Amino acid sequence: MSVMCIPLPSVMRIVAHSRMNKIHTLYRKTHRWDSIINTNQARSFVALAAPPTSSRATNGKSRSVHTDPRFQPAYPGHIPLTPFENGFLAVGSALMSLIDTRRADMVAACGETTAGPTLVKLRDIMLESPEGRRILKERPRINSRTLDFNKLRSLPENTFGAAYVGWLDACKVTPDSRDPVHYIDDPELAYVMQRYRETHDFYHALFGFKVSALPELALKAFEFTNLGFPMTALSLGASIRLKSHQRARLFWEFIPWAARCGSHARCLLAVYWEERWEQDLDEMKKEFGVWDPPAGITIPRPSRVDFS
Fold it and tell me: Where are the alpha helices (DSSP H) in 227-276?
């Protein structure tokens, strides 16, 4: 099933008549929707679409497109947006994410611009538990510089640490693939979003989800019921790209599992995963109130995976 992309100039006539000539020129140079609505070019893009108070900013630096002191960067990498710009980027990134599900930058932009009060709710939940408060205070990061892979590979087979590094090896992914947060104004809430983004793979490892369309959508459904991010629900629109039998399993098996399991579980964003490497995986699931998904979208446990 093909998805029709509306030409950018037609959309812009509705929202930015005064900027049409500039945007049309940019469009003719690029000829591609995904070249315009791109995280790396967002500051120039929203400057064209926004009211005349905006000005272009230099890519790669924490500079605002605005002269108004209310819209100045609050942390490294921050790109302040007006409500209009935020809404415009939210719609554009959501459309682009559905058109090309491989665009991680568009998924990230959609997640940030649609998060809204969800981040406040999650931050408050984290503040209610000792684990969550330590996370917010210490602000740990998850990447190849902060993880000791040799130590994780030396852990017993059924521990969470062994399951995580086994999942990384089996799926051939790296913890360094998560984009930094740009569009969330409050630094603490920006960290909450970054923490969610960097712990997403821990959920994969917890359940053993493969890295493909069907298990990813099943996990997004779980994240929606457990965390509440609108982007995770919007991503289910990508199910139109699944084969008919996969789509049937998603809606009849995996989404019902995600709804029950995600709503029953504790908030996984308040888990200090890095303190639990040595915890038994089955005990962890019992503590969190989660259980395995229906068969067919998970990898074998690390003890049964041959990495040779």
Answer: 230-234, 244-249, 255-264
Q: From CA 44, how far away is CA 54, in angstroms rounded?
A: 9
Of 271, 42, 244, give the one whose Cα is nearest residue 160.
271
Q: CA 58, 64, 66 angle in degrees (round to 5)? A: 115
pLDDT digits (tens, 9 = 90+) for 135-181: 999 999 999 999 999 999 999 999 999 999 999 999 999 999 899 99
Which residues fall within 8 angstroms of residue 20, CB to CB, at 6 or more apart? 9, 12, 13
pTM, entire model = 0.78
- Tokens standing for residue 124: 């408050």
- Please, are residues 132 and 140 in contact by the beta-carbon 8 Å criterion? no
3-class DSSP state for residue 272? Answer: coil
CA-wise closest residue to 147 among 170, 169, 176: 176
Residue of 237, 225, 173, 222 whose CA lies nearest to 201: 173
Contact 115, 234 (CB under 8 A): no
